[in-house]
Amino acid sequence: MLLRFYENNNSYESLQTVTDLLNDGGIFIFPTDGRYAIGCHALKTHAVEAVCRLKGINPMKNHLSIICYDLSSISEFTRMSDATFKLIKRNVPGPFTFILPGTGKLPKIFMGRKEVGIRMPNNPIIMEIVRSIDAPVLTASLPVPDDEEDEYYTNPELIDEMFGHMVDLVIDGGIGHNWESTIVNCTKGTPEVTRQGIGILDA
């Protein structure tokens, strides 16, 4: 199912459809401030496992990332120093993934690496959805083969064509961007940019 969302003034019915789906353990594709992503309610273990299977990843070996609504929820699901808190505050919302130690508030599936990626994309659509479910959303890149065109990362109609049968819902938030977030590892004291994406870190 392809469901159109806008940056503001979405209907109560549309938002409730997504909220109910995620609370029931559904999987969806959604826009971020870069490429479209695949995810689910991050606290629903079976849904997280299903996304990992679709992606072909082992959560014991791969970092999992979540989208949080605000700094308060980041503090709930991760451990961070005052300096790291200030760093994140300066750079969100934006195209960054911050790697932080996770807390026991996350399902055990996240604890294989004992770390979690944190995102707060500059995209009002996914942020409204995260606020609506009052919980983080698991976020992962789409499993698009390297030989596919860029449009399969950015065009929701083509994304629905390729992945619609694999997920419960595709959010059409308009044409996206084909760029990656900047990954910042904050687990070793001094923050380290481990992948330079579109985001320029204000350190």
What would a concise description of this structure say?
Helix content is 31%, strand content 23%. It has 203 residues and is α/β, with parallel strands linked by helices.
Polypeptide structure, described:
This protein has 203 residues and is of the alpha/beta class. It has one domain: DHBP synthase (Alpha-Beta Complex). Helices cover 31% and strands 23% of the residues. It has helices at 12-23, 45-55, 71-77, 82-91, 124-133, 151-154, 156-163; strands at 2-4, 27-30, 37-41, 65-67, 94-101, 115-120, 137-141, 169-172, 182-185, 192-195. The chain has a 10-stranded mixed beta sheet with strand order 1-8-2-3-7-4-6-5-9-10, with helices on both faces. Helix 1 crosses helix 5.
List the SSEs and their pairings.
Blueprint: E1 2-4, H1 12-23, E2 27-30, E3 37-41, H2 45-55, E4 65-67, H3 71-77, H4 82-91, E5 94-101, E6 115-120, H5 124-133, E7 137-141, H6 151-154, H7 156-163, E8 169-172, E9 182-185, E10 192-195
Parallel strand pairs: 1-8, 2-8, 4-6, 5-9
Antiparallel strand pairs: 2-3, 3-7, 4-7, 5-6, 9-10
Helix pairs in contact: 1-5
Q: In total, how many domains does the architecture comprise?
A: 1
Individual helix count: 7
Unreliable stretches (pLDDT < 50, length at least 5) are none
**Would you identify the CATH architecture?**
Alpha-Beta Complex
Distance between the termini: 41 Å
Number of strands: 10
For the residues shown, what is the average pLDDT?
94
Largest sheet: 10 strands, mixed
What is the name of the CATH class?
Answer: Alpha Beta
**Helix content class:** 25-40%
CATH superfamily membership? DHBP synthase
Radius of gyration using CA atoms only: 16 Å
Morphology: globular
Order of helices and strands: EHEEHEHHEEHEHHEEE
Q: Hey, roughly how much beta strand do the residues contain?
A: 15-25%
